[in-house]
Write a structure and sequence with these properties.
Number of strands: 15
Order of helices and strands: HHHEEHEHEEEEHEEEEHEHEEEH
Number of helices: 9
Distance between the termini: 69 Å
Strand content: 15-25%
Largest sheet: 5 strands, mixed
Shape: elongated
CATH class of the largest domain: Alpha Beta
Radius of gyration: 26 Å
Structural class: alpha/beta
Strand order of the largest sheet: 4-3-5-15-6
């Protein structure tokens, strides 16, 4: 028995829900499909499908076996592709993690351009606002905005991330406009749980300024704070990439232009340089190219 063909038959039957439809899709006779299924069940040692006159359904063993068959077929396809594709050609799937706000506001169109440039690739995005363990969660690349890198990981700097203090016209009309960074202590500041929750740091004329802040709302997702600020909830400190369009449309107004919020760096972080896949190398080069070509990463919109 060709077990790969038997797995392909099983996957197709499960997807089509019918032996006849699977036979048509695979250009096989129905009898041949039944034979491959029977031989696969004999090899697995368990019945994979409930067969009735009306429909087919997976048994418990079938439900366990189906994803493994898909994985085996994918591996076989990758092996075949690797034999016919130059080693330096990006291919396969890259598992990437980033924050929700960065993924939605910036990375989605960037990754779309990457996939068009390299049609043999795919990206699996994990968007969470926490530090992901790359090894445990099988992540190939993390895009992180930070000034504190894990020394056990490899990082490539992609760009500088600048921030802007902003609030809605409605909030400023009701509560007034802060003139100095110290005035923020008198305002309702919407704070990010993982960064600057109680202290916002600036620089003015080369002198560092740290201001204690507080308010009635904090969140682990900065885009929530951005939306709350638009509706007049308070003052927020946001990455320029996230706030740009709202500033341009005057839904938010920039504040304290003489004070520069502390800059952060944006890195591509990965676990090891050893046997670095071509898709990871290509993605890092592509991101450097994209960030350097985008003016939003060069100067804040004020």
């Amino acid at each position: 028995m060709d077990r790969l063909i038997a797995m392909q038959v099983f996957v197709e039957v499960a997807d089509q829900g019918s032996l006849t439809a699977a036979a048509d899709k695979l250009d096989m006779s129905r009898a041949m499909v039944s034979r491959y299924l029977a031989e696969l069940e004999a090899w697995v040692g368990a019945r994979l499908l409930h067969r009735t006159t009306r429909k087919l359904s997976l048994t418990s063993a079938g439900s366990d076996t189906l994803p493994r068959c898909r994985q085996m077929l994918g591996m076989a396809s990758d092996i075949q592709a690797s034999a016919t594709t130059p080693e330096d050609t990006p291919r396969g799937t890259l598992r990437l993690t980033c924050s929700m706000s960065l993924g939605q506001a910036y990375l989605a169109p960037v990754l779309t351009r990457f996939l068009k440039r390299y049609p043999g690739t795919a990206v699996d995005m994990l968007m969470v606002d926490r530090t992901v363990n790359l090894i445990e969660e099988r992540v190939d690349l993390a895009i992180r905005i930070t000034n504190a890198l894990d020394p056990n990981l490899i990082a490539r700097k992609l760009a500088v991330c600048r921030s802007v203090v902003c609030a809605s016209p409605a909030y400023l009309k009701e509560h007034g406009t802060p003139k100095t960074a110290e005035d923020l202590a008198l305002h309702n500041c919407l704070t990010y749980s993982y960064f600057g929750k109680s202290l916002w740091e600036f620089e003015k004329d080369g002198v560092p300024v740290a201001v204690p802040v507080g308010g009635n709302m904090s969140a682990n997702e900065s885009s929530v704070l951005l939306e709350a600020a638009v509706h007049g909830a308070g003052i927020t400190l946001q990455p320029v990439y996230a706030a740009t369009e709202l500033l341009r449309s005057d839904k938010l107004r920039p504040l304290l232009g003489e004070y520069q919020p502390r800059e952060m760096s944006i890195y591509g972080v990965y676990a090891s340089r050893r046997q670095m896949p071509a898709i990871l190398r290509a993605m890092l080069d592509f991101l450097v190219e994209e960030f350097s070509a985008d003016s939003d990463w060069a100067t804040p919109v004020v």
